[in-house]
Amino acid sequence: MKNNVWLQRFGKRRQSAEQSAHKFAALYKVGTALSSELDEKKLLYLIAETACKLTGAEMAAFTLRPLNEFGQPITPATGNPFYLAAVVGVSPQQEHFFQQMSFKGEGLLAPIFWEGVPVRIADVLAHTHAFGVHHHDMSPERIKAARQAALDYAQGRITKEKLLSVGVPENHPVVRSFLGVPLLDRSSVVRGGLLLGRSVPDHFTEEDEALLLGLGTQAAIALDNARLYHSAYIHALETDAIFEHIADGVMLMDVNGCILRENQAARHIRELLQDEQNHRQEITALLAGPIQSATTERRDLNFTVTAVVNTSSNEVREYMVNVSPLHLPKASIVPMHPRNRTTMEEQSLMASGAVVVWHDVTETRRLMAYAEAEQLKDEFITIAAHELRTPLAVLKGFAQTLLVQTARGKGAELAEWQVEALQNIDQATSRMVDLASDLLDVARLQAGSLLLHFEPVDLIALLKRVVTRLQVTTECHTLTLHIFTDHFVVDIDQQRIEQVLTNIIGNAIKYSPLGGVIQIDVDAQQQNTVLVSVKDTGIGIPEQQQGQIFGRFMRADNALNEGIAGTGLGLYLCRELVERHGGHTWFESMEGEGSTFYLSFPVSSSQKAVASAELSLS
Ligand code: ADP
Q1: I want to staple 136 with a disulfide (CB 3.0 to 4.6 A). Which of 9, 167, 365, 400 is the partner?
Q2: Residue-by-residue DSSP string for 74-136
Q3: In what order do the strands lie in the sheet with 351-360?
Q4: Nearest CA among 109, 246, 114, 117 for reference residue 172
């Protein structure tokens, strides 16, 4: 009899020892599976299912804390601090219910979520019976009491039995035995909770608790690994995408000159160069020396490569090539034999090959050549215009002397045709003098060497002078000047603004070949701005050319067709000069009906007041 009891006891012990061994073997197996699974969703289900299998739970819910971009757990300002990541052993309706549930970490769950301690309850109903089985009482007093109980439990002041539950919500699967463990990461921070339930009381054992804790730790590490793997993977994708899309061609080459990696631009360059016969050879031959030097001498090398990339169009491209030694820890390329192992410092200094960067400088060179040519052209214009001024002045001087002195009766009388010829010489020389001086101004503006001399000038007096001077040059035009005041002082370069006004009013006369009224208005409607407008009824400017009319050497088709002489430099100079005064130039025009040009200048109010006072005193 005694023997029988002993045998029975021994049999039971052996059975439970076998069960434990079986459970730990299963845990070990799942541990291996966990460490190799990198898909987070699959991992979560694997863990939940394993937890059920190991402990005989009917259902398992996996809750996690949201993470920030650096993988650290965060407590969202609104919503729940935990979310349901996976649930197993429930019906689809119940799963839906779980998705809607809020995981605030109250009551029995609080010690798990907030204190990182496991909770194993023999019968959940024992803690909720006062409130009804499926009723869930979330009154503030009850929640407060549950929180306090959770804290007391976590700090060892009360036993598990004294923990309070805030109830099992309606539609929740019946749970009487409850086992919940925290998921603690490497730094013991609670990442989530693994919650198990069974509909009968007294199910989970101390061993289950230990087992689940172990699983929880493995799960947290596995999740961390999955996240790290995922972020490393994303990072690698990003780096690849950046590498691929670098505008310069980048090649990673080993010491023997073999291409280990190259980006899109490098492939394109290689293909371009290979279109030529034997260029493959050439690239390797071309880079062999520099790679050798870069890797052995550990220094950067720069050189240029010029190649015809398209024989049919004779397209030549020029590349600036930079070869620099590539330092990689040798272990990251070739597994090292322990005998050859060097220190980490030495490893990180080892040059494993070279980075070759191909920078296409064709356009830059072209632009530089263009800029150089432009500069040469400007220099030439400056010199030519400058050198022309003296002989032109001599020519004009003698033509005028001949005309004037002969008219005064000095020397032999000139025939009519001779007088006409001299007048033509005089006019043509005047035009050439104007052209030379405009060209000089353009060159100075381009070079930034045109200096303005600002001084207070009475704009009304200046306008009157220009209008009077130009009125005598024409009989078929009537120049009218409308002023709003007798004096208006502005701070300008008198000579330059006179040049602008002369050009604009002169154009109005020139491009109104049939004559007519030229109306000049000066107004200071807007505060601190004075506006001058010049309106004519001439040929106007064709609409499609209006956008370019302020360009250098720009002349409208109708002006050319009418045979009106000009250089196309005046308006360019006007706009530049006005803008250097801080003002603006614009126009309105209708072909065949006429144009109105506007000039606006800023006026400083103090300047205006001072100058007006000076004028009224004088
Ligand atoms: P230019 O008169 O020497 O040709 P501008 O630079 O002063 O040079 O003028 C550029 C072009 O703008 C002129 O050739 C002409 O086609 C057009 N233009 C300028 N002013 C007028 C105007 N008042 N009416 C019609 N066309 C004009």
Answers
A1: 167
A2: ---SSS-SBEEEEEESS-HHHHHHHHH--B---GGGHIIIII---EEES-HHHHHGGG-SS--
A3: 259-262, 249-254, 351-360, 315-327, 301-310
A4: 109
- Contact 506 CB / ligand 1 (< 6 Å): no
pTM greater than the 0.85 cutoff: no
Banded pLDDT at 412 (limits 50, 70, 90): confident
Element containing residue 506 per DSSP (H, E): helix 494-510
Distance CA 585, CA 601 (A): 9
Q: 307 in helix, strand or coil?
A: strand
Ligand 1 center to residue 399 CA distance, Å? 29
- Name the residue at shortest CA distance from atom 23 of ligand 1: 508
- Measured by CA distance, the residue closest to atom 8 of ligand 1 is 568
Percent of residues, the chain, with pLDDT higher than 70: 84
Does ligand 1 have an atom closer than 6 angstroms to the CB of 439?
no
CB 259 within 8 A of CB 253: yes
Indicate left, alpha or beta for 325 from its phi (over 0: left) and psi (-120 to 50: alpha): beta
- What spacing in Å lies between the alpha carbon of 592 and ligand 1's midpoint? 14
pLDDT on residue 80: 74
Contacts of 139 (CB under 8 A, 6+ apart): none
- Long-range CB contacts for residues 332-336, cutoff 8 Å, separation at least 24: none
Q: Do residues 493 and 534 make contact, with C-beta atoms less than 8 angstroms apart?
A: no
User: Looking at residue 558, what is its pLDDT?
Assistant: 96
Highest average pLDDT, of 260-274, 350-364, 501-515, comes from: 501-515
Distance between CA atoms of residues 476 and 514, nearest Å: 8
Are 193 and 82 in contact by the 8 Å Cβ rule? The answer is yes
Q: Residue 597's pLDDT is what?
A: 98
Q: What angle separates helix 494-510 from helix 459-471, to the nearest 10 degrees?
A: 40
Weakest-pLDDT range from 246-255, 322-331, 567-576: 322-331
What is the rounded end-to-end Cα distance, in angstroms, of the chain? 143
Mean predicted confidence (pLDDT) in 548-558: 94
